[in-house]
Amino acid sequence: MTLIDGYLTGNRNRNAEAGAGQRPGSDAFSALFDPTAFRHIERLGIGPGWRCWEVGAGGTSVVSWLAKRVGPTGRVLATDTDISWHTSAARTPVEVRVHDVGVDGPPSGGFDLVHARRVLAGVPDQESALRSMIRALRPGGRLLIEEADPALQPLSCPDEHGPAQQLANRLRHALITQRGTDLAYGRGLPRLLRAAGLRQVEADAYFPLTSPACTALEAAMIQQSRTALTTAGLATDDDITAHLANIAAEPMDLATAPLISAWGRKG
Question: Whole-prediction pTM value?
């Protein structure tokens, strides 16, 4: 499973198949969704000396941003099941560590912030993983969880006005239906955080529509899923070739699934 597939389905092992190095579409994903995470983290009060745990990091963009905010007196622990991306990130105040939040116990240290994006929906024991992240917080620490909700908006082209848009939506439906995770997990995050004992729980949703990054993400997602879709009989190779040609040839108002962000305070 790839990073882009993991965006739709919350697959925590999203890096395993792609291997080391930069994955196609990762820059587009960061361009779309990093600003949302940064806005929320700044609102939570991040500053010099903060101790942060980036769960399922999968790359360096958020980790590097956190490191700049906490400074040399802070700490950023970046964990994932695959840390092949870590070479340029592992320097003070960043520590990179192999860790599976669905299996391993929480790291020690009493964190001011724990952030996980596209992690929980793909973990078999979601309740245990959530408890682990909360246990890692110091009293008063903040948890920020972000998950996609493809069932909330399952269309690649919400404005379906022609054959190209119809094909795009048919392929998006095929991508969604072939996965086995809870596609509506994101919308339940506020309830789950309250049930876990967090206070001052809030949430919002970000729904990108029409940008170069949306287009790049769509192309990368379809390219990476070509074999899976054709092998499962959910699309033909001609369908995929035609969709990629449509993307390249004409402006298309391509959308992503909404990303639900929920946050709360411990104690």
Answer: 0.89
Q: Residue 162 corresponds to which tokens in the numbers above? A: 């022609």
CA-to-CA distance for 164 and 78, rounded, in angstroms?
41
In the chain, how many H helices and how many E strands?
8, 7
- For the segment 117-134, what is each residue's pLDDT rounded down to a tens digit? 999 988 889 999 999 999
Angle at 233 between CA 232 and CA 234, to 5 degrees: 90
Helix axis angle, 163-177 relative to 212-231, nearest 10°? 60
Q: Which of 115-129, 177-191, 203-217 bottoms out in mean pLDDT, i.e. has the lowest?
A: 177-191
**Which of 2-6, 70-74, 126-130, 170-174 has the lowest average pLDDT?**
2-6
> How many whole angstroms separate alpha carbon 175 and alpha carbon 5?
9
CATH class of 3-265: alpha beta
The Cβ-side half-sphere exposure at 152, using a 13 Å CA radius, reads 19
Contact status, residue 2 vs residue 68, Cβ threshold 8 Å = no
Quick check: 207 and 255 in contact, CB under 8 A?
yes
Q: Where are the domains of the chain?
A: 3-265
pLDDT tens digits along 19-54: 344 455 788 889 999 999 999 999 999 999 999 999
Query: What count of other Cβ atoms lies within 10 Å of the Cβ of residue 215?
Result: 17
